[in-house]
Amino acid sequence: MKKIKNLIAALMVTFLLANMVSAIAANTSDTSWSFNFGRINKNLYTESRSKQDQSPVYFYVDNFQSGDVLRVRAITGSKKPSSYTPISYISTVGKYCISSNIYEDGYRSVRVHGQKHSLFSTLKADGYWSPDSWSCGW
User: Fold this and answer.
1) Calpha distance 104→12 (Å, rounded)
2) Can you give the pLDDT at residue 21?
3) Is residue 31 a contact partner of residue 128, using CB atoms and an 8 Å limit?
4) Which DSSP symbol is given to 117?
5) Predicted confidence (pLDDT) per residue in 20-58, tens digit
6) Nearest CA to 50 among 19, 34, 28?
7) How far is Cα 108 from Cα 51, in angstroms, rounded to an integer?
8) CA–CA dist 121, 106 (Å, integer)
9) Which residues contact 55 (CB under 8 A, 6 or more apart)?
10) What DSSP designation does 46 have?
């Protein structure tokens, strides 16, 4: 019985270490972003960054000034959508996890595409983002 308990404990430690190494190897460092939409521009992008795993893009909104809604989605570094590229709707500060199939489709760079809803509105927002996340859950 003691051998079984030790084996289970060893397997659990191995699993935890493997997940920690995966998170450490991912591109989880934060980079600032800022979207400042005037009355006529509708599309803005973050810079392109390396994507190293299947985790969602981490997107933190620190400031949000608008009566409009910010629509964001993860796209490839070359501004192409992946086979799964849902839109996240943002109207307040907070943490957002943006899913996509960018890594699964074989792309290794990502950026965030931001759009405002109304062509004639204004919207200012900024915060931090990272291509890979350790806090979004998989």
Assistant:
1) 27
2) 41
3) yes
4) S
5) 444 455 889 999 999 999 888 889 999 999 999 999 999
6) 28
7) 5
8) 36
9) 26, 132, 133, 134, 136, 138
10) P
Contact 22, 53 (CB under 8 A): yes
Q: How far apart are the first and last CA of the chain?
A: 34
116, 117, 119, 124 alpha-carbon torsion, rounded to 10° = -30
**Residue 100 scores a pLDDT above 90:** yes
CA distances from 118 to 70, 75, 129, 131 (A): 10, 21, 24, 27
The answer on pLDDT for 8 being more than 70 is no
| CA 115, 41, 36, 110 torsion-angle sign | positive
3 state DSSP class of 16 = helix
Per-residue pLDDT tens for 67-82?
789 999 999 999 999 9
pLDDT in tens, 126-135: 999 999 998 8
